[in-house]
Amino acid sequence: MGMDAGAGEKPNENVVRHNLTVDRQARIGISRQRSAVLWFTGLSGSGKSTIANALEIRLHQAGRLSYLLDGDNVRLGLNADLGFSEHDRKENNRRVAHVARLFWDANVLTLVSFISPFRHERETARQLIGPDFIEIFVDTPMAECEKRDPKGLYVKARKGEIAQFTGISSPYEPPENPEIVLHTDRESVAESVERIVALLTARGYL
Ligand SMILES: Nc1ncnc2c1ncn2[C@@H]1O[C@H](COP(=O)(O)OP(=O)(O)OP(=O)(O)O)[C@@H](O)[C@H]1O
Ligand SMILES: [Mg+2]
User: Fold this and answer.
1) Residue 37 has pLDDT above 90, yes or no
2) What distance in Å separates the CA atoms of residue 93 and residue 80, rounded to the nearest whole number?
């Protein structure tokens, strides 16, 4: 049994991977589920946390072990040392990709709701996870996000009180080939959840 939960790391000649005996396949063997990483990306206010939370309720009710890694929550803990420069946003995403990989390896249905504005960092996460990576583009128009403004951030950003705000003063690179595109300006939260559940079911995760 191979175990490579840290694949993608920079090599260091003094650090030697210890191959562990109980791996993801072994964990699948004693469980009634198979892990995936559901990676939500989109502008602030697009609905990532709202939909991921609603999906997780659904998974939990179905008796599946899940974990939602939410951008704001992870920034309050593990990534509390990071800001919003391009470098720090990339590091924020690099770390959560590795955390998601550990949860995936633990055979947990893992949801990630981070803006994750850069295509390259999302692609790196995809490569780290492999075929169980499901990219969900929460494609809400900027005007709709700004109208919702659930945290009052757009008002502050327009007043110049938040530097490097995604969509205003920091770029957002939309995904080119996401597994799912959600149009929350014309689909309800429940409809979005059902579309994700349908894909999970079709792929044998549910
Ligand atoms: N169809 C919909 N799907 C998702 N959210 C919706 C929908 N319609 C309205 N909303 C509202 O839009 C807001 C989305 O906010 P949410 O915090 O989920 O965004 P987010 O993408 O997590 O933003 P951030 O990147 O700042 O964390 C919520 O207030 C939610 O109630
Ligand atoms: Mg959120």
Assistant:
1) yes
2) 13
